[in-house]
Specification:
The strands form two sheets. The protein has a six-stranded mixed β-barrel. A four-stranded antiparallel beta sheet has the order 2-10-1-11. The protein is elongated. The two termini are 46 Å apart. β7 (156-159) and β8 (162-173) form a beta hairpin. With 386 residues, the chain is an alpha+beta fold. 45% of the residues lie in helices and 18% in strands. It folds into two domains: 2-253, no CATH class; 255-385, no CATH class. It has helices at 2-17, 45-60, 110-113, 140-146, 224-234, 246-253, 255-289, 291-299, 304-336, 349-375, 379-385; strands at residues 28-33, 65-71, 81-87, 100-106, 118-121, 135-139, 156-159, 162-173, 189-193, 210-216, 240-245. α1 runs antiparallel to α7 (255-289) and α9 (304-336) runs antiparallel to α10.
Amino acid sequence: MLLIGAGLMIRSLWMLRSVDPGLDPRNVLTMTVGIPVPSSKFPTPSQQSNFFNDVLELVRALPGVDSAGVIETLPLTGGGSTQPIAIEGRPAQQMADQPEVAVRIISPGYIRAMHIPLLGGRDLNDADTADRPRAIVISESMAKRFWPNENPIGKHLTMTFFPDGTREIVGIVGDVKDSGLDVVDPVATLYMPLGQISTPLLGGWTSFPMSLVVRTNANPSSLTSAVTGAVHQVDSELPLLQIRTMQDVVGESLAQQRFNMQLLAVFAGLALLLAAIGIYSVLSYSVKRRVREIGIRMALGAQVRDVLRLILIEGMRPTLIGVAIGLAGASVLGRVLANLIYGVKPTDPITFGTVSVLLAIVGLFASLIPAYRATRVEPMRTLHDE
């Protein structure tokens, strides 16, 4: 049961590694600019926007940098806000009844830096400033949820927590695994430009931490010093936190699944070792007690293969019975693990079959040494002792 549980977790982790996160994590360096919340450094949202514009201008000019942008919550980290919206042209609703979508505040260049596919319309750009009409980009799942048979480009909506005017949908991008690779259903997501936040956020905050993402043409870690230097050139007092590559972020999002797999694998390996030792010990003791019987059998004409067959059957019978009982128990265990595995059925035939064969092989090898010893019995000495 433990081996099958570990096998299911290993298969699940393997499947998760092949899941498309909706972006390309390769060659991307990330870091969080540690802006205190609330902060007196940026009394207005526009001042924070200007700060990041200056940072991005310097970072994009660095050798080896392909593109760069900022977002307030990195994908796959499980963070970010969910906010109610009101769609223009549809019946008005109280805030408690309004549909909610994930909202991500980004800068121009973020979608390009993360290689999130643009499916329609345009990306946010430097022209989307506070004095321009409000523009947003939505995810494919949001488009399908609210405009299943329409083109949402050009549609308008109001964000309840940013009631400074309606916002026009200017583009559609692919879905991103914001909450983790194991989340099956995509989350409807809205991307709004940092430069068009003209009012304080909920709670009166005028500033908030943002994560810088930098796509490079080489190993992203090699540009850590240059990128941090560019940020500190604009403001040397702000700390930079969680400096890591996007591939590290993806790996950290699998940490819980990896821990569960490793824990089960350790116990499964221990159980397998104990099973092999147990079979070997019991059969060795049994052979020792039956030395005379085996000697008499061989004296009366039994062949080596007959003795081998006798001992192997004696060892394999309980092994196969145990495997059958374990398979039945593992089918129950699989239902318990159903919420911990991804892309694999709790009764995955590959896992069940592989573990069954593995245990049968272990049982066979654990039986071979006692069986071989049984064939070394001297028939004449046994008769002489009798």
